[in-house]
Backbone:
């Protein structure tokens, strides 16, 4: 299912928001990102992360999350405009 390899890498400490960062990358080979992320979240090691260790979305997963949030914000904005428009048009028709 997976080939795990340990390789020598550069001797440096990567940081994200001033905290040490470890990266895990994967080649999905045709598996959808959402499906792969669900499988990762279901792993026992991801449910019981040690204290001080947290998962953060970066790369394509982060972009996907941002896109979803922006879509919800646009939907909320359009809904509010429609609600105000329908309220104003209801008031103007009741005055006539």
Residues:
């Amino acid at each position: 299912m997976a080939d795990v390899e340990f390789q020598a890498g550069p001797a440096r400490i990567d940081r994200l928001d001033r905290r040490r960062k470890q990266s895990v990358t994967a080649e999905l080979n045709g598996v959808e990102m959402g499906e792969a992320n669900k499988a990762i979240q279901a792993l026992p090691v991801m449910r019981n992360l040690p204290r001080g260790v947290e998962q953060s979305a970066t790369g394509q997963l982060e972009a996907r999350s941002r896109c979803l949030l922006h879509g919800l914000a646009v939907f909320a904005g359009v809904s509010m405009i429609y609600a105000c428009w329908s309220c104003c048009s209801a008031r103007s028709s009741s005055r006539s």
Strands lie at 15-16, 19-20. The two ends are 71 Å apart (CA to CA). The chain has one domain: 15-95.
